[in-house]
Design goal:
Length: 183
């Protein structure tokens, strides 16, 4: 009962956790790589069965398994999670393997804006800057609701390209309102 009263009075702050998963769209290059992987596996299978007989069949099936595994790992999803202004961006490969791409607090943002005609000059200037490390976590280059974000970390300056939802933008705005541009 006392806990509820403290919450209503504003004494207890609850953590805010937001999450969004964006699947990367396959490009023509992804399909070409998949075809090349299975073609190479077929060649390995044929050569191995001709020269190594029964043992070659096992090697051939191993090659097909490797081609399948590598083609599945080209299915990439990006997960954005925001906890009290902390943004974490992870890449998930083949729904099996997770890799943290970056972690930053929204207080460190120098610029946060949509990729559109209003902010095209700022976006292009930052994208062509050789001193920035670009992290592209969008579904595609032509993503509709894509934003870019510039910030400093101990490893240097970064340019993040991603697709946050409105709740995430509002959370960032509560920590660093002067650099957030929505239009």
């Amino acid at each position: 009962m006392r806990l509820a009263a403290l919450y209503l009075e504003g004494w207890i702050a609850l953590d805010t956790f937001l999450e969004k998963i964006v699947a990367k769209k396959k490009t023509a290059l992804d399909y070409v790589i998949t075809v090349l992987l299975f073609t190479a596996a077929l060649l390995v299978f044929l050569v191995a069965t001709v020269f190594l007989a029964g043992f070659g069949i096992a090697i051939g099936f191993g090659a097909f398994y490797g081609a399948w595994y590598l083609s599945v790992m080209r299915n990439i999803e990006y997960e954005y999670s925001v906890t009290n202004g902390d943004l974490n961006v992870d890449a998930i490969y083949g729904q099996r393997k997770r890799k943290r791409l970056l972690s930053v607090h929204s207080k460190n943002f120098e610029l946060f804006a949509p990729i559109n005609k209003n902010h095209e000059q700022e976006y292009l200037r930052n994208k062509t800057n050789k001193n920035l490390t670009v992290v592209d976590a969008r579904s595609s280059e032509s993503a509709e609701n894509a934003f870019f974000c510039v910030f400093n970390k101990e490893k240097g300056r970064f340019l993040l390209l991603f697709e946050p939802d409105q709740r995430m933008i509002d959370n960032f705005k509560s920590f660093n309102p002067r650099v957030i541009k929505e239009v």
